[in-house]
Amino acid sequence: MNIIAIDGMGGDTAPETAVAGAVSAANQGIQVLLIGDQNILEKEINKLGDFPSSLEIVHAPDAIAMEEHIGMQIRNRTESSIWTGMELVKSNKANAFVSMGNTGAMLAAALIHLGRLPGIQRPGLAIILPTPGGPSLLIDGGANAESRASHLVQFADMGTVYMKAIYGFDSPKVGLLSIGEEASKGSTLIQEAYEKLENDSFINFVGNIEGRDIVTGSYQVIVTDGFTGNNTLKIMEGTISMLFDMMRSAANKSFRSRIGGALLLPAIREVRSNLDYRKYGAAPLLGVEGAVFIGHGRSDATAVSNAIINAAQVDQLGILQQVRSIISSKYT
Fold this sequence. Notes:
Blueprint: E1 3-7, H1 16-26, E2 31-36, H2 38-48, E3 55-59, H3 81-90, E4 96-99, H4 103-113, E5 124-125, E6 127-129, E7 136-139, H5 149-167, E8 173-177, H6 188-198, E9 204-209, E10 221-223, H7 226-251, H8 255-274, E11 282-286, E12 292-295, H9 301-316, H10 319-331
Parallel strand pairs: 1-2, 1-4, 2-3, 4-12, 7-10, 8-9, 8-10
Antiparallel strand pairs: 5-11, 6-7, 11-12
């Protein structure tokens, strides 16, 4: 049976949303280990009035706040929920660990406890983007603020294997995010990465792409550094939220617009659902020796529940094992 550990203290609105999401996933048949201060977590569960038999609390009295710049100092926080979650994966007591908490702490704990895949220099956060042309993967979504060209090549390799394994693409198109399509465009990092990607026979590299190309679905793997990738994601989230707010405001301006808005409401809800990041819940950290999923700090209970369920599905399908097998064969 899949056992998924979830950080009960991670996220902007933890423990409330983390607990509610964990309870929801447990009620759908997932074996869940909820990590955090036992007294706090039990109080939250009691508020819900529901303690599923497939939910178990793992006591961890310390919690790492979202704003802490902890890095490798996490070695001194061995009673934290993040450290404990990684220990559960390392000792095979959990098949995967999910957290909506501090990304830097998650990355450091994963590197210390689990280590990198053979030959991999840096792990990358693989974000699935829903687009009209199908799912696209952006890597790195924020694990590494600074990267080298060789890191971007490895992101492309891991992203390619992941998209083949989970979505069945025969030859995922890989695009390098830049400020122009020409090979000469972009920073020194991007130009150097372009040359290396062009010579990588392992992937289907189609060249540079621009920001507007991300949402078309024409490219299955979008490669960038974590600083650019994280800012790109947040701009997209903000833009989508703004557009729906503007539509809601316009629909309430007059009686006629309210009628039109009511007629369009089912279609608008469908579009919003298709663009909802909560469907995926959390992103896998590709390149480490274990299943680690990191979600958005502002995730609600639905996102947490979906993150746990998706982590269980990825583990059940052996997706990350496929990534490990293929990537390790290339780099060793």
